[in-house]
Amino acid sequence: MTSRLTVVYGVRASASEIKARAQAIAVEQSVEMPLSAIHDGSILSDIVGQVRAIDDRGNGAFDVTIDLAAATIGSDAGQLINMLFGNTSLHDDVVLSSAILPSEMLSAFGGPSHGLSGLRERVGAKGRAMTCSALKPQGLGAEDLGKLAFELTMGGLDFIKDDHGLADQSYSPFVDRVRVCAAAVRKASERTGHPTRYAPSLSGSYTDMERQLGLAREEGLDVALIAPMLAGPSNFSALRRNHPDFAFLAHPTMTGARVSPVLFAQLFRLFGADASIFPNYGGRFGYSLLTCKAIAAGLLGSFGGLAASVPAPAGGMSLDRTPELLDCYGEDVMLLIGGGLLSAPRERLAAEAGRFVRAVADHCYPRLSTP
Amino acid sequence: MTSRLTVVYGVRASASEIKARAQAIAVEQSVEMPLSAIHDGSILSDIVGQVRAIDDRGNGAFDVTIDLAAATIGSDAGQLINMLFGNTSLHDDVVLSSAILPSEMLSAFGGPSHGLSGLRERVGAKGRAMTCSALKPQGLGAEDLGKLAFELTMGGLDFIKDDHGLADQSYSPFVDRVRVCAAAVRKASERTGHPTRYAPSLSGSYTDMERQLGLAREEGLDVALIAPMLAGPSNFSALRRNHPDFAFLAHPTMTGARVSPVLFAQLFRLFGADASIFPNYGGRFGYSLLTCKAIAAGLLGSFGGLAASVPAPAGGMSLDRTPELLDCYGEDVMLLIGGGLLSAPRERLAAEAGRFVRAVADHCYPRLSTP
Predict the structure, then answer these.
(1) Has the ipTM of the complex gone over 0.90?
(2) B129 touches B331 (CB < 8 A)
């Protein structure tokens, strides 16, 4: 018996077609050729994807459960994505709903180097949620971004990250930005006494990203933002392995709408995301409360002994939602408010950030009553 | 006036919502924060995405044309994808339909190093289409893949590529596979006198891919298969720049169904794909004839002076469709038949490949009559 992944696909099809469609997906995501042309019995039994179940969800929607061989993947992140969804992503009537991975695979990838407890430690956040904001808009120069970073740090935030759109643009080259913003955060941190962390956004090729991590390290930084689906999942995984001193916040850009965001968050955790950003319910993306709770559970819950990854809901959030969000997510969360803080006039920015910090610090988490 | 990209999104919305949706996409794909919080006039005028047109296509479908600032992208491939579709890819009611890029951007990326004419030269294919097949299934060891490569080369094919699912698996490690298959192709090539090229599939991190290219180079190879959306577009771009002796066949795995395949093929050409594989019409993917013709035109047509990239239709194709496909695509094409050839018994494989080669060589292309 070879080790297998159990993968569920949501498929739109007619009842008469679904069996053939399910089988076609099983073949596409494994050997990708007619089974009649395969004469090696062990490939047919051990490598070809196997349809395990087809559940009719009504109205032409089916859940198709397929077992894929772990041997086709090994421990390469890009190849895992390739075998889970690669060619099938081209079909507009199939979504990738969920996957159960064998435990050897979980330990082979290794998960976060620091995770929830490591990030808490970096910013001294015990028994409370963590706070985060973003540097933007796109188009500001390094000096202006640095001023924002200074004010946000003066407010006592835990993390300040680059907007995921900040790359290595001529109006704000990475090297200038990281120096100015790191210095601003350092300076303000000395005044507040709070160890605010600045997380610059990595972009470009793997080589570019290693150079950027080097620059960040020179500035005393130890957290970075990365978009695994732009970097290439294997490159993210390699960065995590080769730079264990850094914690990584994963950004969901280009994850698309046809892979379950719960699964994507789990995959990012698997590849090494210490925190995983996702669009919060009630913001400008259409995620439901249920989806967001499931994402948080997928990042925090038991996962083959891997460290927990911090859920970081974001996207169109405002300060006055802090109590509601903390009631919803509990204390194991990093609330990310970007535009909602930056909408304040510059001279009020530190005070607004401070209000956010206090709202989080003062929150009384609902607990189960004990007798 | 700053340099801009003109991007068209297909959006599903009600007539009353579409204006706000269009504006939201323009903001999301540029500054990603409330415009009321931006006080810098030059960011509002030069950086924020601008909605240029909203065309009602009926039944709740709209084409939204948005201009994005080229300055937010520079010449980084990952950042181009990020600004074209990044966060908006998370919305399931938006597709990325097309993009017109400024000419400076086209020259900055540079396109294919070899392209159509370079690939033709490598295999001595003048005035005819090129032929390609794939090594599979997943699960075969290096020795067995080498035997297939030998037989396919004996048939006189131009290109033999690894299946895009072949990575660095324990049953067929890259280093073994590339040595055995390169040797098999070399040996058979000496017999046929035809310079068949073997293109191994690159996988893993950028560092892994560079090592793989090094191994391939040691074996005298000069063509490789890459999946840009798994590698990370910036890494593909960097490999192309740093390894100009190699030609790259691009594979569409993980390009998803919500970016126009025509645009994706053009982006792959932009980043440096010498040939671009796409699912052929009438195969096992749902692409129409019209879509496939548009992909081919996007790869071959005028594009800021960039070399043409070879259209390589594939996916569930059979030998007997060769005349139809050549009538459709003309001679500037690489026909890729994988499973359709491999379905032949091993002892007939070289003969089947030979039939494919002859069908392509003997084809009489329809030409416009001249007086």
Answers:
(1) yes
(2) yes
Q: Does domain A115-361 have CATH number 3.20.20.140?
A: no
- Rounded CA separation A229/B269 (Å): 20
Quick one: which of B154, B200, B160 has its CA closest to B178? B200
Rounded distance between C-alpha atoms, residue B39 and residue A342, angstroms: 11
Other CB atoms within a 10 A radius of the CB of residue B361 amount to: 12
- pLDDT of A213-268, one tens digit each? 999 999 999 999 999 999 999 999 999 999 999 999 999 999 999 999 999 999 99
**Rounded to whole angstroms, how far apart are CA atoms A190 and A192?**
6
Contact assignment for B33 to A169 by CB distance below 8 Å: no
Probe site for chain B from A27, A32, A291 (most B CB atoms < 10 A): A32
Q: Do B74 and A167 touch (CB under 8 A)?
A: yes
Kindly list the domain boundaries of chain A, sorted by start residue. 4-108, 115-361
Q: State yes or no: cis peptide before B233, omega within 30 of 0.
A: no
Contact (CB<8Å) A165/B234:
no
B63: CB partners within 8 A, 6+ apart = B8, B9, B10, B11, B53, B54, B55, B57, B97
Tell me what pLDDT residue A318 has: 92
How confident is the model over A326-363, as pLDDT tens digits?
999 999 999 999 999 999 999 999 999 999 999 999 99
CA A333 to chain centre: 13
Strands of the sheet containing A159-162, edge to edge, are A197-199, A159-162, A130-135, A334-336
Q: How many CB pairs under 8 A join A and B?
A: 286
CATH no. of B4-109: 3.30.70.150
Binary contact (B83, A204; C-beta < 8 A): no
Residue of A24, A74, A137 lying closest to B284 (CB–CB): A24
User: What pLDDT score was predicted for residue B57?
Assistant: 97
Distance from CA of A187 to the nearest CA of B (A): 25
For residue B277, the cross-strand partners are B312
Q: What are the CA-CA distances from residue A227 to residues A166, A233, A234, A251, B230 (Å)?
A: 12, 9, 12, 5, 13
**Residues B108-116: what's their mean pLDDT?**
97
| Sequence-distant contacts of A90-94: CB under 8 A, at least 24 apart | A90/B252, A90/B255, A90/B256, A90/B257, A90/B261, A90/B279, A90/B285, A91/B257, A91/B285, A91/B286, A92/A258, A92/B257, A92/B258, A92/B286, A93/A11, A93/A12, A93/A13, A94/A9, A94/A10, A94/A11, A94/A12, A94/A25, A94/A258
CB spacing of A79 vs B137 below 8 angstroms: no
Contact across the interface for A234 and B42, Cβ inside 8 Å: no
Among candidates A206, A256, A257 on the partner chain, residue whose Cβ is nearest the Cβ of B235: A206
Q: What are phi and psi of B123, to 5 degrees?
A: -115, 10
Instruction: Report the distance separating Cα B131 and Cα B81, nearest Å.
Output: 31
Residue B136 near residue A33, CB atoms below 8 Å: yes
**CA R_g for chain B:** 22
Looking at chain B, which residue has its C-alpha nearest residue A251? B87
**Which of 1.10.20.10, 3.40.1190.10, 3.30.420.40, 3.30.70.150 would CATH assign to domain A4-108?**
3.30.70.150
Q: Which of A87, A211, A263, A291 to mutate to test the interface with B (most CBs of B within 10 A)?
A: A87
Q: What is the mean pLDDT of residues B218-226?
A: 98
In terms of CA atoms, which chain A residue is nearest residue B74? A169
C-alpha torsion sign, points A70, A72, A77, A79: negative
- Pairing state between β B50-56 and B61-69: antiparallel
Q: Which among A72, A256, A344 has CB closest to B165?
A: A72
Please indicate whether, in this complex, the C-beta atoms of B47 and A138 are within 8 angstroms of each other: yes
Q: Nearest-CA distance from B116 to chain A in Å?
A: 25
Q: What percent of chain A has pLDDT over 90?
A: 95
B252: chain A residues, CB-CB within 8 Å:
87, 90
